[in-house]
């Protein structure tokens, strides 16, 4: 659920004010279904839940662009901004690929320095995991699944790839790649 909450809050924050269909359109246009397990129904459920928890509030639409009942438009409250920041920071240190993916999608909403610090924490945690995984005993004829050399090899390769990916992202950010909102605001 935190992945969906982060996507929904991020979409509304990028727009300032948004209705459910616009949030769904954003997430669909970002092809988030290819890098997360988010489903359309979970987006609307998250909108309801976020409003009930005081993280978003409804606002009156300035212009009713369609005939029929007015649509519900949302803005993010201070409580929601705090939740967004906490989820985003958590996502950038997470070893879960879906959470990291959403974190990367919104990392520009942090300062460059904060994004670097969080990704460095992730890299350190991954390096610790690699050392642990390499220390696991394996057996040619495994007495239990956790001692199967192929299984341990899969784990080591996966975490090594995650560490290398994190290192590449860090290098790109440190090299000045990508625009961060805080830098754009400083330039105004």
Question: What is the topology?
Answer:
Blueprint: H1 2-15, E1 18-19, H2 20-29, H3 32-35, H4 40-52, E2 56-59, E3 73-76, H5 78-93, H6 97-106, H7 112-135, H8 149-174, H9 181-186
Organism: Cohnella suwonensis
Pfam families: PadR
Domain Transcription regulator PadR N-terminal: 12-85
Query: What is the fourth-level CATH superfamily of the largest domain?
Result: Winged helix-like DNA-binding domain superfamily/Winged helix DNA-binding domain
Portion of residues in helices?
55-70%
- Please state how the strands of the largest beta sheet are arranged side by side: 1-3-2
User: Segments where pLDDT lies below 50 for 5+ residues?
Assistant: none
Total number of β-strand segments? 3
What general outline do the C-alpha atoms trace? globular
Q: In total, how many domains does the architecture comprise?
A: 2
- Structural category: mainly alpha
CATH class identity of the largest domain: Mainly Alpha
| Rg (CA only) | 20 Å
Our count of helices gives 9
Largest sheet: 3 strands, antiparallel
Descriptors for this entry?
Arc Repressor Mutant, subunit A; WH-like_DNA-bd_sf; mainly alpha; 188 residues; 65% helix; Tscrpt_reg_PadR_N; three-stranded antiparallel β-sheet; 5% strand; Metal_resp_DNA-bind_regulator; PadR family transcriptional regulator
Model description:
There is one protein chain. The chain is built from nine helices and three strands; from the N terminus they run αβαααββααααα. With 188 residues, it is mostly helical. It folds into two domains: 100 residues, Winged helix-like DNA-binding domain superfamily/Winged helix DNA-binding domain (Arc Repressor Mutant, subunit A); 77 residues. It has a three-stranded antiparallel sheet with strand order 1-3-2. The longest helix is centred in the C-terminal third of the chain and has 26 residues. The mean pLDDT is 91. InterPro entries: Metal_resp_DNA-bind_regulator, Tscrpt_reg_PadR_N, WH-like_DNA-bd_sf, WH_DNA-bd_sf.
